[in-house]
Amino acid sequence: MTVSMDNNPAFNRIPPWVKAKLRPNAIETIQKVHDWVETECVPAEPVVKAQLAVAGKHWTTPPLIEELRKKAKAQGLFNLFLPNHFKESPGLTNLEYACCAEIMGRCYWAAQTMNCHAPETGNIELLAKYCTPEQKERWLKPLMDGTMSSAYSMTEPDVASSDATNIGLSMRIEGSEVIINGRKLYGNSQANPDLGIYILMGCSDPTNPDPWKRHTTVVVPSRAKGLTMVRNITIMGYDHAPEGHGEYVYDNVRVPIENIILGPGRAFEIAQGRLGPGRIHHCMRLVGQMERAYELALIRCIEPQKKPRGKLIGEFDSNIERIASMRMEIDSMRQLVLNAADTIDILGGKAGRYVIAQCKILVPNVATKVIDECMQMYGGQGLTQHTALPEMWTYARFVRVADGPDSAHRHQVGRDQMKTAGGFKERHLAYQKRHQELCKKWGVEYVKYGATDF
């Protein structure tokens, strides 16, 4: 199958510098993902909602999604996110996958049909990166096969989890077992029968003088004895069934020591390895959500029955400017995300820390702003279930907190930037020295260089 990118809607928004880096197999995959989302997912959104509304089925995966997952797997559209340096990967680079993920973002659950949804993407990459062959057989294989789902459990209700050194859930290692006690917030709902495991972060060595080595990551079966879901929790009124979120109590939950990932005290190493890709995957999908919201706004602009003061909504200067601003903001965020994906491909996740943080801070903020503007153009109807806009906005607002709040990422970026100040001071001192030399050479009165007083 040869795919032309010329005038092809699957590639219309992809910048030329990215197109030049796409390999033939990736071009074919992007086309397949586009066709899949446009024909199988977006038109089926009302059907999925109807299936979730059936009595007693609210927390089970809708039959339509189950069917689509089987079809997507058969067509080779499963686990596309896993980077090509893993042996289990289907072979895409982060940059190539970013083009796919934007398309997936057009429908909230489209990524789920391709096993490319949160938290599965981060969890699968974590297990592929850090687990032993035996652990991969137990947990990675069923997740990649799509026969089980998982959750990542880090946040706690009793501490400021934005500073993860505060995490206090107790993991006491005794002999051949890990004994777990404490409370957790978030992590997919136990009400979903597909949920098989929690990847849990807790404190196993509270007196260690190094706070970054006090914590351990362990896999806990979702129905382990002593693990209780206190309640499902909503996100700004949405329960996000069938995955959802929960509040949990661990009361002397016992798991084998073999369930520890990588080793005791290495949870932060694992968390950083997991959260980087997860953060950027959210941002990739948000670009797709913004595009869909923008299309809805354009449609609203030309609706002939919507004519306040006798003019189409799109004929008002304020809306013309609004449309222009949103277009440029979406395109800017796409460039940001694609640059981050390319940086990770070339330099690795650690070196790409800044661009990942940049995406995580800016993209959800811009997405909430863009979607809010689209809702405004719909007036009162924009706040209702008549469009997907309110759910899109809620997801974007959630991502501002998911995987770490904005302020934590800004703080990290700011601290990193402050470390560069000394180098800039040296540069400006060199300017001043050279300025003195030039004044002497040309007989010009010397004054302090620029506005900087050294």
UniProtKB/TrEMBL annotation:
Gene Ontology biological process: fatty acid beta-oxidation using acyl-CoA dehydrogenase
InterPro entries, per database record: Acyl-CoA_dehydrogenase, Acyl-CoA_Oxase/DH_mid-dom_sf, AcylCo_DH-like_C, AcylCo_DH/oxidase_C, AcylCoA_DH/ox_N, AcylCoA_DH/ox_N_sf, AcylCoA_DH/oxidase_NM_dom_sf
Pfam families (alphabetical): Acyl-CoA_dh_1 (PF00441), Acyl-CoA_dh_N (PF02771)
GO MF terms, alphabetically ordered: acyl-CoA dehydrogenase activity; flavin adenine dinucleotide binding
Cofactor(s) this protein requires: FAD
UniProt keyword Acetylation, yes or no: no
Keyword set includes Nucleotide-binding: no
Gene3D superfamilies, sorted: Acyl-CoA dehydrogenase/oxidase, N-terminal domain, Butyryl-CoA Dehydrogenase, subunit A, domain 2, Butyryl-CoA Dehydrogenase, subunit A, domain 3
Domain named Acyl-CoA dehydrogenase/oxidase N-terminal: residues: 32-146
Domain of life, source organism: Eukaryota
Domain Acyl-CoA dehydrogenase/oxidase C-terminal: 268-415
Transmembrane segments: none
Alphabetical keyword list: FAD, Flavoprotein, Oxidoreductase
A GO CC annotation given for this chain: cytoplasm
Similarity remark: Belongs to the acyl-CoA dehydrogenase family.
Protein name listed in UniProt: Acyl-CoA dehydrogenase NM domain-like protein
